[in-house]
Amino acid sequence: MTEPLQPLESDNRDDRIVNVATHFKEMVRRHPYKRAVVCPFGRDRAGRVAYRHLTFQQLDEESDRLAHGLASAGIGRGTRTILMVRPSLEFFALTFAMFKTGAVPVVVDPGMGIRRMVACFRQSRPQAFIGIPLAHVVRTLFPKFFDTVQTWITVGRRWFWGGRTLNQIRQDPWQPHTMARTRAADTAAILFTTGSTGPAKGVVYTHGNFDAQVRTIQDHFDIGADEIDLPTFPLFALFDPALGMTAVIPDMDPTKPAQVNPERIIEAIVNQGVTNMFASPALLNRVGGYGKARGVRLPTLKRVVSAGAPVAPANIEQFSAMLSDEAQIHTPYGATEAVPIISIGSREILSETRPLSEKGYGMCVGRPIGEARVVLIRISDDPLPIWNADLEVADGEIGEIIVQGEIVTRAYYENDRADALAKIEEGAAIWHRMGDLGWRDKKGRIWFCGRKSHRVVTENGPFFTIPCEAIFNNHPAVFRSALVGVGPAENQTPVICIEVRAGEKTPRSQIKTELLAMARKSVLTRSIGTILFHKGFPVDIRHNSKIFREQLAVWAARKLGE
Protein backbone atom coordinates (compact mmCIF):
# COMPACT_ATOMS: atom_id res chain seq x y z
CA MET A 1 0.00 0.00 0.00
CA THR A 2 1.31 3.45 -0.85
CA GLU A 3 1.27 6.36 1.57
CA PRO A 4 -2.00 8.34 1.33
CA LEU A 5 -2.18 11.48 -0.75
CA GLN A 6 -2.57 14.67 1.23
CA PRO A 7 -4.35 17.93 0.41
CA LEU A 8 -2.00 20.19 -1.51
CA GLU A 9 -2.36 22.91 1.12
CA SER A 10 -3.34 22.69 4.77
CA ASP A 11 -6.18 25.26 4.74
CA ASN A 12 -9.52 24.92 3.02
CA ARG A 13 -9.84 28.33 1.41
CA ASP A 14 -10.51 28.59 -2.30
CA ASP A 15 -7.44 30.83 -2.71
CA ARG A 16 -4.92 28.13 -1.70
CA ILE A 17 -2.38 27.12 -4.34
CA VAL A 18 -3.58 23.88 -5.97
CA ASN A 19 -2.69 22.18 -9.26
CA VAL A 20 -3.76 18.63 -9.95
CA ALA A 21 -0.46 17.99 -11.77
CA THR A 22 1.29 18.32 -8.39
CA HIS A 23 0.01 14.85 -7.47
CA PHE A 24 1.57 13.54 -10.68
CA LYS A 25 4.90 15.21 -9.83
CA GLU A 26 4.82 13.50 -6.44
CA MET A 27 4.39 10.14 -8.16
CA VAL A 28 7.34 10.96 -10.43
CA ARG A 29 9.41 11.48 -7.30
CA ARG A 30 8.22 8.19 -5.75
CA HIS A 31 8.29 5.96 -8.86
CA PRO A 32 10.45 7.60 -11.59
CA TYR A 33 11.15 4.35 -13.49
CA LYS A 34 7.74 2.73 -13.15
CA ARG A 35 5.71 2.59 -16.37
CA ALA A 36 3.15 5.39 -16.35
CA VAL A 37 1.35 4.73 -19.65
CA VAL A 38 1.37 1.60 -21.81
CA CYS A 39 -0.18 1.66 -25.28
CA PRO A 40 -0.72 -1.19 -27.80
CA PHE A 41 1.29 -0.59 -30.96
CA GLY A 42 0.42 -3.22 -33.56
CA ARG A 43 1.09 -6.95 -33.66
CA ASP A 44 3.99 -9.12 -34.76
CA ARG A 45 3.78 -11.94 -37.31
CA ALA A 46 2.69 -14.36 -34.59
CA GLY A 47 -0.22 -12.11 -33.67
CA ARG A 48 1.30 -11.01 -30.37
CA VAL A 49 0.65 -7.44 -29.22
CA ALA A 50 3.55 -5.01 -29.31
CA TYR A 51 3.46 -2.21 -26.71
CA ARG A 52 5.17 1.12 -26.24
CA HIS A 53 5.30 3.03 -22.98
CA LEU A 54 6.48 6.05 -21.02
CA THR A 55 7.80 5.82 -17.46
CA PHE A 56 6.67 8.41 -14.93
CA GLN A 57 9.93 10.30 -15.44
CA GLN A 58 9.60 10.13 -19.23
CA LEU A 59 5.99 11.31 -19.07
CA ASP A 60 7.04 14.17 -16.80
CA GLU A 61 9.80 15.24 -19.18
CA GLU A 62 7.59 14.84 -22.26
CA SER A 63 4.84 16.94 -20.70
CA ASP A 64 7.47 19.55 -19.77
CA ARG A 65 8.60 19.73 -23.41
CA LEU A 66 5.02 20.14 -24.58
CA ALA A 67 4.24 22.68 -21.84
CA HIS A 68 7.06 24.91 -23.11
CA GLY A 69 5.76 24.47 -26.65
CA LEU A 70 2.16 25.25 -25.70
CA ALA A 71 3.27 28.39 -23.91
CA SER A 72 5.29 29.53 -26.94
CA ALA A 73 2.19 28.96 -29.10
CA GLY A 74 0.08 31.15 -26.83
CA ILE A 75 -1.64 28.44 -24.79
CA GLY A 76 -1.16 29.41 -21.18
CA ARG A 77 -2.99 29.93 -17.93
CA GLY A 78 -6.77 30.09 -18.43
CA THR A 79 -6.67 29.37 -22.20
CA ARG A 80 -9.77 27.32 -23.02
CA THR A 81 -8.40 24.63 -25.31
CA ILE A 82 -10.37 21.99 -27.20
CA LEU A 83 -8.62 18.63 -26.86
CA MET A 84 -9.57 16.02 -29.47
CA VAL A 85 -6.91 13.34 -29.21
CA ARG A 86 -7.47 9.59 -28.99
CA PRO A 87 -6.22 7.71 -25.90
CA SER A 88 -2.47 7.50 -26.48
CA LEU A 89 0.90 8.50 -25.05
CA GLU A 90 0.37 11.93 -26.61
CA PHE A 91 -3.05 12.27 -24.92
CA PHE A 92 -1.49 11.88 -21.47
CA ALA A 93 1.52 14.08 -22.19
CA LEU A 94 -0.66 16.85 -23.62
CA THR A 95 -3.14 16.80 -20.75
CA PHE A 96 -0.49 17.12 -18.07
CA ALA A 97 1.32 19.73 -20.14
CA MET A 98 -1.88 21.77 -20.13
CA PHE A 99 -2.29 21.38 -16.37
CA LYS A 100 1.33 22.49 -15.90
CA THR A 101 0.74 25.65 -17.94
CA GLY A 102 -2.64 26.29 -16.30
CA ALA A 103 -4.50 25.92 -19.62
CA VAL A 104 -8.11 24.66 -19.51
CA PRO A 105 -8.86 21.51 -21.55
CA VAL A 106 -12.35 21.45 -23.08
CA VAL A 107 -13.46 17.84 -23.53
CA VAL A 108 -16.55 16.60 -25.36
CA ASP A 109 -17.49 12.98 -26.02
CA PRO A 110 -17.10 12.54 -29.82
CA GLY A 111 -19.69 9.78 -29.79
CA MET A 112 -22.56 12.22 -29.29
CA GLY A 113 -22.55 13.10 -32.99
CA ILE A 114 -20.72 15.79 -34.92
CA ARG A 115 -23.37 18.53 -34.82
CA ARG A 116 -24.02 18.18 -31.09
CA MET A 117 -20.29 17.99 -30.44
CA VAL A 118 -19.40 21.17 -32.30
CA ALA A 119 -22.36 22.95 -30.66
CA CYS A 120 -20.83 22.08 -27.28
CA PHE A 121 -17.48 23.42 -28.38
CA ARG A 122 -19.08 26.68 -29.47
CA GLN A 123 -20.68 27.06 -26.01
CA SER A 124 -17.23 27.00 -24.42
CA ARG A 125 -15.93 29.86 -26.63
CA PRO A 126 -12.59 28.07 -27.17
CA GLN A 127 -9.37 29.99 -27.70
CA ALA A 128 -7.20 27.09 -28.90
CA PHE A 129 -7.69 23.76 -30.64
CA ILE A 130 -5.51 20.65 -30.34
CA GLY A 131 -6.61 17.62 -32.32
CA ILE A 132 -5.80 14.71 -34.59
CA PRO A 133 -6.15 15.30 -38.36
CA LEU A 134 -9.73 13.99 -38.45
CA ALA A 135 -10.71 16.50 -35.76
CA HIS A 136 -9.29 19.32 -37.88
CA VAL A 137 -11.31 18.10 -40.86
CA VAL A 138 -14.44 18.40 -38.70
CA ARG A 139 -13.60 21.93 -37.60
CA THR A 140 -13.00 23.04 -41.20
CA LEU A 141 -16.51 21.81 -42.08
CA PHE A 142 -18.05 23.93 -39.29
CA PRO A 143 -15.88 27.07 -39.24
CA LYS A 144 -18.44 29.34 -37.54
CA PHE A 145 -18.42 27.11 -34.46
CA PHE A 146 -14.72 27.82 -33.94
CA ASP A 147 -14.50 31.53 -34.77
CA THR A 148 -13.05 32.32 -31.32
CA VAL A 149 -10.05 29.99 -31.79
CA GLN A 150 -6.71 31.73 -32.31
CA THR A 151 -4.27 28.81 -32.00
CA TRP A 152 -4.40 25.54 -33.95
CA ILE A 153 -2.21 22.49 -33.28
CA THR A 154 -2.37 19.20 -35.16
CA VAL A 155 -1.37 15.95 -33.45
CA GLY A 156 -0.07 14.06 -36.45
CA ARG A 157 0.20 15.13 -40.07
CA ARG A 158 -1.15 18.57 -41.00
CA TRP A 159 -3.03 18.58 -44.28
CA PHE A 160 -4.62 21.64 -45.90
CA TRP A 161 -5.23 23.77 -42.80
CA GLY A 162 -2.98 26.20 -41.00
CA GLY A 163 -1.44 26.18 -37.55
CA ARG A 164 1.40 24.13 -36.10
CA THR A 165 1.98 20.45 -35.50
CA LEU A 166 2.73 18.81 -32.17
CA ASN A 167 6.23 17.96 -33.41
CA GLN A 168 6.85 21.62 -34.22
CA ILE A 169 5.99 22.85 -30.71
CA ARG A 170 7.72 20.00 -28.87
CA GLN A 171 10.83 21.44 -27.26
CA ASP A 172 14.03 19.44 -27.43
CA PRO A 173 16.30 19.18 -25.47
CA TRP A 174 14.29 18.90 -22.25
CA GLN A 175 14.06 21.70 -19.75
CA PRO A 176 11.89 21.54 -16.61
CA HIS A 177 8.70 23.59 -16.73
CA THR A 178 7.56 25.60 -13.73
CA MET A 179 4.13 24.54 -12.52
CA ALA A 180 1.44 27.19 -12.89
CA ARG A 181 0.47 28.50 -9.45
CA THR A 182 -3.23 27.89 -9.93
CA ARG A 183 -5.63 28.17 -7.03
CA ALA A 184 -8.27 25.77 -5.79
CA ALA A 185 -11.07 27.86 -7.28
CA ASP A 186 -9.36 28.28 -10.69
CA THR A 187 -10.88 26.44 -13.62
CA ALA A 188 -8.91 23.28 -14.47
CA ALA A 189 -11.12 21.85 -17.23
CA ILE A 190 -14.55 22.02 -18.84
CA LEU A 191 -16.06 18.56 -19.29
CA PHE A 192 -19.34 18.26 -21.16
CA THR A 193 -22.08 15.89 -20.05
CA THR A 194 -23.39 13.45 -22.67
CA GLY A 195 -26.80 15.12 -22.70
CA SER A 196 -28.51 11.75 -22.15
CA THR A 197 -31.38 13.42 -20.27
CA GLY A 198 -31.30 16.89 -21.84
CA PRO A 199 -28.94 19.31 -23.58
CA ALA A 200 -25.25 18.66 -22.97
CA LYS A 201 -23.78 21.08 -20.42
CA GLY A 202 -20.21 22.18 -19.80
CA VAL A 203 -19.24 21.25 -16.23
CA VAL A 204 -16.59 23.55 -14.76
CA TYR A 205 -13.94 21.55 -12.89
CA THR A 206 -11.61 23.48 -10.62
CA HIS A 207 -8.18 22.36 -9.50
CA GLY A 208 -9.73 21.95 -6.05
CA ASN A 209 -12.33 19.52 -7.47
CA PHE A 210 -9.65 17.40 -9.15
CA ASP A 211 -7.50 17.46 -6.02
CA ALA A 212 -10.42 16.19 -3.92
CA GLN A 213 -11.27 13.51 -6.49
CA VAL A 214 -7.74 12.14 -6.56
CA ARG A 215 -7.61 11.94 -2.75
CA THR A 216 -11.09 10.37 -2.50
CA ILE A 217 -10.36 7.69 -5.11
CA GLN A 218 -6.96 6.82 -3.62
CA ASP A 219 -8.36 6.56 -0.10
CA HIS A 220 -11.63 4.74 -0.77
CA PHE A 221 -10.26 2.16 -3.22
CA ASP A 222 -6.97 1.77 -1.35
CA ILE A 223 -4.83 2.30 -4.46
CA GLY A 224 -1.40 0.73 -3.87
CA ALA A 225 2.06 1.46 -5.26
CA ASP A 226 2.08 -1.58 -7.55
CA GLU A 227 -1.27 -0.97 -9.29
CA ILE A 228 -1.81 -1.42 -13.03
CA ASP A 229 -5.05 -0.03 -14.44
CA LEU A 230 -7.05 -0.81 -17.58
CA PRO A 231 -9.26 2.30 -17.95
CA THR A 232 -11.84 1.60 -20.66
CA PHE A 233 -13.19 5.16 -20.32
CA PRO A 234 -10.56 7.72 -21.43
CA LEU A 235 -11.36 10.49 -18.93
CA PHE A 236 -10.92 8.13 -15.99
CA ALA A 237 -7.50 7.22 -17.37
CA LEU A 238 -6.23 10.70 -16.55
CA PHE A 239 -6.44 9.98 -12.82
CA ASP A 240 -3.95 7.12 -13.12
CA PRO A 241 -0.68 9.12 -13.28
CA ALA A 242 -1.85 11.28 -10.35
CA LEU A 243 -2.60 8.10 -8.37
CA GLY A 244 0.66 6.41 -9.27
CA MET A 245 -1.05 3.68 -11.31
CA THR A 246 0.26 2.39 -14.62
CA ALA A 247 -2.42 3.10 -17.25
CA VAL A 248 -2.76 0.43 -19.94
CA ILE A 249 -4.67 1.82 -22.93
CA PRO A 250 -7.19 -0.81 -24.09
CA ASP A 251 -7.42 -1.89 -27.71
CA MET A 252 -11.02 -0.77 -28.29
CA ASP A 253 -13.25 2.01 -29.58
CA PRO A 254 -14.02 3.94 -26.37
CA THR A 255 -17.27 5.27 -27.88
CA LYS A 256 -18.66 1.73 -28.30
CA PRO A 257 -18.02 -0.25 -25.10
CA ALA A 258 -20.99 -2.54 -25.75
CA GLN A 259 -19.30 -3.75 -28.96
CA VAL A 260 -15.85 -4.33 -27.47
CA ASN A 261 -13.91 -7.43 -28.47
CA PRO A 262 -13.76 -9.40 -25.18
CA GLU A 263 -10.59 -11.20 -26.26
CA ARG A 264 -8.70 -7.90 -26.54
CA ILE A 265 -9.73 -6.83 -23.03
CA ILE A 266 -8.82 -10.20 -21.49
CA GLU A 267 -5.56 -10.22 -23.47
CA ALA A 268 -4.53 -6.84 -22.02
CA ILE A 269 -5.36 -7.92 -18.46
CA VAL A 270 -3.29 -11.10 -18.80
CA ASN A 271 -0.38 -9.53 -20.73
CA GLN A 272 0.07 -6.61 -18.37
CA GLY A 273 -0.96 -8.15 -15.04
CA VAL A 274 -3.76 -5.61 -14.65
CA THR A 275 -4.92 -5.15 -11.04
CA ASN A 276 -7.63 -2.52 -11.53
CA MET A 277 -10.16 -2.00 -14.31
CA PHE A 278 -12.90 0.50 -15.02
CA ALA A 279 -15.76 -0.90 -17.11
CA SER A 280 -19.19 0.40 -17.98
CA PRO A 281 -22.05 -2.04 -17.26
CA ALA A 282 -22.31 -2.79 -21.01
CA LEU A 283 -18.61 -3.72 -21.27
CA LEU A 284 -18.79 -5.65 -18.01
CA ASN A 285 -21.67 -7.69 -19.40
CA ARG A 286 -20.00 -8.41 -22.74
CA VAL A 287 -16.62 -9.44 -21.32
CA GLY A 288 -18.20 -11.27 -18.38
CA GLY A 289 -20.48 -13.32 -20.64
CA TYR A 290 -17.57 -14.30 -22.87
CA GLY A 291 -15.27 -15.16 -19.99
CA LYS A 292 -17.81 -17.14 -17.98
CA ALA A 293 -18.75 -19.26 -21.01
CA ARG A 294 -15.10 -20.18 -21.57
CA GLY A 295 -13.98 -20.57 -17.99
CA VAL A 296 -11.58 -17.62 -18.13
CA ARG A 297 -9.82 -16.67 -14.89
CA LEU A 298 -8.26 -13.27 -14.18
CA PRO A 299 -6.21 -13.79 -11.01
CA THR A 300 -4.33 -10.47 -11.13
CA LEU A 301 -7.51 -8.37 -11.05
CA LYS A 302 -8.25 -7.36 -7.48
CA ARG A 303 -10.62 -4.47 -8.18
CA VAL A 304 -13.17 -3.72 -10.89
CA VAL A 305 -15.00 -0.40 -10.91
CA SER A 306 -18.23 -0.17 -12.89
CA ALA A 307 -20.25 3.01 -13.28
CA GLY A 308 -22.20 5.11 -15.76
CA ALA A 309 -25.55 3.39 -15.18
CA PRO A 310 -27.08 0.98 -12.65
CA VAL A 311 -25.22 -2.34 -12.66
CA ALA A 312 -27.52 -5.38 -12.50
CA PRO A 313 -26.55 -7.89 -9.79
CA ALA A 314 -26.69 -10.67 -12.42
CA ASN A 315 -24.07 -8.75 -14.42
CA ILE A 316 -21.87 -8.49 -11.32
CA GLU A 317 -22.29 -12.19 -10.51
CA GLN A 318 -21.39 -13.18 -14.06
CA PHE A 319 -18.14 -11.18 -14.15
CA SER A 320 -17.24 -12.25 -10.61
CA ALA A 321 -16.93 -15.82 -11.88
CA MET A 322 -13.60 -14.80 -13.48
CA LEU A 323 -12.17 -13.18 -10.34
CA SER A 324 -10.38 -14.47 -7.25
CA ASP A 325 -12.24 -14.71 -3.95
CA GLU A 326 -10.40 -11.62 -2.67
CA ALA A 327 -11.37 -9.41 -5.62
CA GLN A 328 -14.39 -7.12 -5.61
CA ILE A 329 -16.49 -5.25 -8.14
CA HIS A 330 -17.26 -1.74 -6.92
CA THR A 331 -20.20 0.26 -8.28
CA PRO A 332 -19.55 3.90 -7.35
CA TYR A 333 -22.36 6.38 -7.93
CA GLY A 334 -22.00 9.93 -9.21
CA ALA A 335 -22.31 12.15 -12.24
CA THR A 336 -20.04 14.36 -14.32
CA GLU A 337 -20.83 17.13 -11.83
CA ALA A 338 -19.86 15.09 -8.75
CA VAL A 339 -18.08 11.72 -8.83
CA PRO A 340 -17.58 9.50 -6.91
CA ILE A 341 -19.88 10.26 -3.98
CA ILE A 342 -21.38 6.88 -3.00
CA SER A 343 -20.12 3.32 -3.42
CA ILE A 344 -20.82 -0.33 -2.60
CA GLY A 345 -18.94 -3.57 -3.22
CA SER A 346 -20.04 -6.79 -4.90
CA ARG A 347 -19.89 -8.87 -1.70
CA GLU A 348 -22.59 -6.76 -0.06
CA ILE A 349 -24.63 -6.62 -3.26
CA LEU A 350 -24.64 -10.37 -3.92
CA SER A 351 -25.06 -11.43 -0.30
CA GLU A 352 -27.55 -8.83 0.92
CA THR A 353 -29.05 -6.23 -1.41
CA ARG A 354 -29.64 -8.26 -4.58
CA PRO A 355 -32.87 -10.01 -3.45
CA LEU A 356 -34.33 -6.68 -2.40
CA SER A 357 -33.40 -5.02 -5.71
CA GLU A 358 -35.14 -7.83 -7.62
CA LYS A 359 -38.28 -7.22 -5.55
CA GLY A 360 -38.36 -3.55 -6.55
CA TYR A 361 -36.63 -1.80 -3.67
CA GLY A 362 -34.36 0.02 -6.12
CA MET A 363 -30.66 -0.44 -6.84
CA CYS A 364 -28.52 -0.09 -3.73
CA VAL A 365 -25.59 2.21 -4.57
CA GLY A 366 -24.09 2.16 -1.07
CA ARG A 367 -22.98 4.73 1.46
CA PRO A 368 -21.39 8.17 1.01
CA ILE A 369 -17.61 8.07 0.66
CA GLY A 370 -14.90 10.55 1.51
CA GLU A 371 -16.08 13.94 2.68
CA ALA A 372 -19.27 13.99 0.60
CA ARG A 373 -22.48 15.01 2.38
CA VAL A 374 -25.48 13.28 0.82
CA VAL A 375 -29.08 14.27 1.58
CA LEU A 376 -32.49 13.41 0.09
CA ILE A 377 -35.01 16.20 -0.44
CA ARG A 378 -38.63 16.52 -1.55
CA ILE A 379 -39.18 15.85 -5.25
CA SER A 380 -39.58 19.10 -7.19
CA ASP A 381 -38.91 20.24 -10.74
CA ASP A 382 -38.59 23.87 -9.65
CA PRO A 383 -35.40 25.79 -8.81
CA LEU A 384 -34.39 25.74 -5.14
CA PRO A 385 -32.04 28.72 -4.80
CA ILE A 386 -31.47 28.62 -1.01
CA TRP A 387 -30.95 25.60 1.24
CA ASN A 388 -33.59 24.92 3.87
CA ALA A 389 -33.45 21.94 6.22
CA ASP A 390 -37.21 21.54 5.80
CA LEU A 391 -36.51 20.23 2.27
CA GLU A 392 -35.17 16.93 3.68
CA VAL A 393 -37.29 13.78 3.62
CA ALA A 394 -37.27 11.09 6.27
CA ASP A 395 -35.34 7.83 5.90
CA GLY A 396 -37.35 5.36 3.83
CA GLU A 397 -39.06 8.08 1.79
CA ILE A 398 -38.14 8.55 -1.88
CA GLY A 399 -36.63 11.95 -2.63
CA GLU A 400 -34.08 13.67 -4.86
CA ILE A 401 -30.41 12.97 -4.10
CA ILE A 402 -28.28 16.06 -3.47
CA VAL A 403 -24.61 16.30 -2.49
CA GLN A 404 -22.15 18.81 -1.09
CA GLY A 405 -18.36 18.72 -0.70
CA GLU A 406 -15.01 19.57 -2.25
CA ILE A 407 -15.58 16.93 -4.91
CA VAL A 408 -18.75 18.70 -6.12
CA THR A 409 -18.48 21.15 -9.02
CA ARG A 410 -20.08 24.52 -8.34
CA ALA A 411 -21.33 25.65 -11.75
CA TYR A 412 -21.82 24.99 -15.44
CA TYR A 413 -19.96 27.09 -17.97
CA GLU A 414 -21.99 30.25 -18.66
CA ASN A 415 -25.32 28.46 -18.19
CA ASP A 416 -27.35 30.33 -15.59
CA ARG A 417 -30.53 28.35 -16.26
CA ALA A 418 -28.79 25.02 -15.66
CA ASP A 419 -27.22 26.42 -12.50
CA ALA A 420 -30.61 27.56 -11.23
CA LEU A 421 -32.11 24.09 -11.70
CA ALA A 422 -29.17 22.10 -10.34
CA LYS A 423 -27.54 24.18 -7.59
CA ILE A 424 -28.68 25.14 -4.09
CA GLU A 425 -26.76 27.75 -2.11
CA GLU A 426 -26.00 27.32 1.59
CA GLY A 427 -23.87 30.31 2.50
CA ALA A 428 -20.57 29.90 0.65
CA ALA A 429 -21.25 26.20 0.04
CA ILE A 430 -23.11 24.68 -2.91
CA TRP A 431 -25.37 21.65 -3.01
CA HIS A 432 -25.67 19.86 -6.36
CA ARG A 433 -29.00 18.29 -7.26
CA MET A 434 -28.19 14.97 -8.92
CA GLY A 435 -31.54 14.78 -10.72
CA ASP A 436 -31.79 11.20 -9.40
CA LEU A 437 -34.33 9.76 -6.99
CA GLY A 438 -33.66 7.38 -4.13
CA TRP A 439 -34.18 6.59 -0.47
CA ARG A 440 -31.98 5.87 2.55
CA ASP A 441 -32.30 2.69 4.61
CA LYS A 442 -31.60 2.18 8.32
CA LYS A 443 -28.01 1.15 7.55
CA GLY A 444 -27.29 4.49 5.87
CA ARG A 445 -27.31 3.05 2.34
CA ILE A 446 -28.83 4.90 -0.60
CA TRP A 447 -31.15 3.01 -2.96
CA PHE A 448 -31.33 4.49 -6.48
CA CYS A 449 -34.85 4.59 -7.98
CA GLY A 450 -34.25 6.31 -11.32
CA ARG A 451 -34.00 9.77 -12.85
CA LYS A 452 -36.39 12.43 -11.60
CA SER A 453 -37.29 13.35 -15.17
CA HIS A 454 -38.18 9.72 -15.91
CA ARG A 455 -40.78 9.24 -13.18
CA VAL A 456 -44.28 8.57 -14.53
CA VAL A 457 -46.94 10.72 -12.88
CA THR A 458 -50.42 9.14 -12.80
CA GLU A 459 -53.70 9.72 -10.99
CA ASN A 460 -52.70 6.85 -8.69
CA GLY A 461 -49.39 8.48 -7.80
CA PRO A 462 -45.87 8.36 -9.27
CA PHE A 463 -44.16 5.30 -10.74
CA PHE A 464 -40.37 5.09 -10.52
CA THR A 465 -38.32 3.43 -13.26
CA ILE A 466 -35.78 1.22 -11.46
CA PRO A 467 -38.18 -0.39 -8.93
CA CYS A 468 -40.86 -1.08 -11.56
CA GLU A 469 -38.44 -2.37 -14.18
CA ALA A 470 -36.89 -4.79 -11.68
CA ILE A 471 -40.13 -6.79 -11.55
CA PHE A 472 -40.16 -7.33 -15.32
CA ASN A 473 -36.40 -7.94 -15.53
CA ASN A 474 -36.88 -11.11 -13.47
CA HIS A 475 -38.37 -12.86 -16.52
CA PRO A 476 -35.70 -15.11 -18.11
CA ALA A 477 -36.52 -13.90 -21.65
CA VAL A 478 -36.10 -10.21 -20.78
CA PHE A 479 -32.74 -8.56 -21.48
CA ARG A 480 -33.94 -5.23 -20.10
CA SER A 481 -37.11 -3.22 -19.64
CA ALA A 482 -37.94 0.49 -19.56
CA LEU A 483 -40.84 2.29 -17.93
CA VAL A 484 -42.18 5.30 -19.87
CA GLY A 485 -45.25 7.53 -19.60
CA VAL A 486 -47.67 8.24 -22.42
CA GLY A 487 -50.25 11.02 -22.40
CA PRO A 488 -50.63 14.32 -20.49
CA ALA A 489 -47.70 15.12 -18.19
CA GLU A 490 -49.92 15.36 -15.10
CA ASN A 491 -51.81 12.10 -15.76
CA GLN A 492 -49.76 9.64 -17.78
CA THR A 493 -50.37 6.02 -18.69
CA PRO A 494 -47.46 3.82 -17.53
CA VAL A 495 -46.05 1.64 -20.33
CA ILE A 496 -43.35 -1.03 -20.05
CA CYS A 497 -41.06 -1.44 -23.07
CA ILE A 498 -39.34 -4.81 -23.33
CA GLU A 499 -36.11 -5.79 -25.09
CA VAL A 500 -35.81 -9.58 -25.16
CA ARG A 501 -32.55 -11.45 -24.98
CA ALA A 502 -30.69 -12.11 -28.23
CA GLY A 503 -31.76 -15.37 -29.82
CA GLU A 504 -34.88 -15.72 -27.65
CA LYS A 505 -37.37 -18.06 -29.37
CA THR A 506 -40.34 -17.82 -26.99
CA PRO A 507 -43.38 -16.24 -28.73
CA ARG A 508 -43.85 -12.58 -27.75
CA SER A 509 -47.51 -13.26 -26.92
CA GLN A 510 -46.48 -15.85 -24.32
CA ILE A 511 -43.83 -13.55 -22.83
CA LYS A 512 -46.40 -10.75 -22.59
CA THR A 513 -48.92 -12.96 -20.79
CA GLU A 514 -46.29 -14.09 -18.31
CA LEU A 515 -45.07 -10.53 -17.71
CA LEU A 516 -48.58 -9.26 -16.98
CA ALA A 517 -49.05 -12.09 -14.51
CA MET A 518 -45.79 -11.14 -12.79
CA ALA A 519 -46.84 -7.48 -12.70
CA ARG A 520 -50.12 -8.27 -10.93
CA LYS A 521 -48.22 -9.93 -8.06
CA SER A 522 -46.37 -6.73 -7.09
CA VAL A 523 -47.93 -3.63 -5.53
CA LEU A 524 -45.46 -1.59 -7.59
CA THR A 525 -46.64 -2.80 -10.99
CA ARG A 526 -50.14 -4.27 -10.64
CA SER A 527 -51.75 -1.26 -12.37
CA ILE A 528 -49.37 -1.47 -15.37
CA GLY A 529 -51.27 -3.14 -18.19
CA THR A 530 -49.48 -2.01 -21.34
CA ILE A 531 -46.42 -3.85 -22.62
CA LEU A 532 -44.59 -3.10 -25.88
CA PHE A 533 -41.68 -5.00 -27.43
CA HIS A 534 -38.75 -3.03 -28.86
CA LYS A 535 -35.98 -4.56 -30.98
CA GLY A 536 -33.15 -2.62 -29.33
CA PHE A 537 -33.29 0.27 -26.86
CA PRO A 538 -31.51 3.53 -27.69
CA VAL A 539 -28.70 4.04 -25.16
CA ASP A 540 -26.19 6.71 -24.19
CA ILE A 541 -22.99 7.21 -26.17
CA ARG A 542 -20.51 7.31 -23.32
CA HIS A 543 -21.26 4.01 -21.58
CA ASN A 544 -23.80 2.33 -23.90
CA SER A 545 -25.83 1.59 -20.75
CA LYS A 546 -28.20 4.43 -19.90
CA ILE A 547 -31.53 3.96 -21.68
CA PHE A 548 -32.89 6.96 -23.57
CA ARG A 549 -36.37 6.69 -22.09
CA GLU A 550 -37.38 10.01 -23.66
CA GLN A 551 -36.97 8.48 -27.11
CA LEU A 552 -38.79 5.32 -26.05
CA ALA A 553 -41.70 7.41 -24.76
CA VAL A 554 -42.10 9.04 -28.19
CA TRP A 555 -41.91 5.62 -29.84
CA ALA A 556 -44.47 4.16 -27.42
CA ALA A 557 -46.90 7.03 -27.97
CA ARG A 558 -46.65 6.51 -31.72
CA LYS A 559 -47.22 2.76 -31.35
CA LEU A 560 -50.28 3.34 -29.20
CA GLY A 561 -51.65 6.05 -31.48
CA GLU A 562 -51.47 8.72 -28.78
Short description:
With 562 residues, the protein is of the alpha/beta class. Among the domains are: 21-220, ANL, N-terminal domain (Rossmann fold, 3-Layer(aba) Sandwich), CATH 3.40.50; 455-559, 2-Layer Sandwich (GMP Synthetase, Chain A, domain 3). The longest helix has 17 residues, at 56-72.
Q: What structural class do the secondary elements suggest?
A: alpha/beta
Uncertain segments: none
Total beta strand runs: 27
Kindly identify the CATH topology of the domain at 21-220: Rossmann fold
Question: Radius of gyration in whole Å, from Cα?
Answer: 24 Å
| Number of alpha- plus pi-helical segments | 17
Describe the sheet with the most strands.
8 strands, antiparallel
**CATH homologous superfamily assignment of the domain at 21-220:** ANL, N-terminal domain
CATH class of the domain at 21-220: Alpha Beta
Tell me which CATH architecture of the domain at 21-220 applies here.
Answer: 3-Layer(aba) Sandwich
Share of helix, binned: 25-40%
Distance between the termini: 60 Å
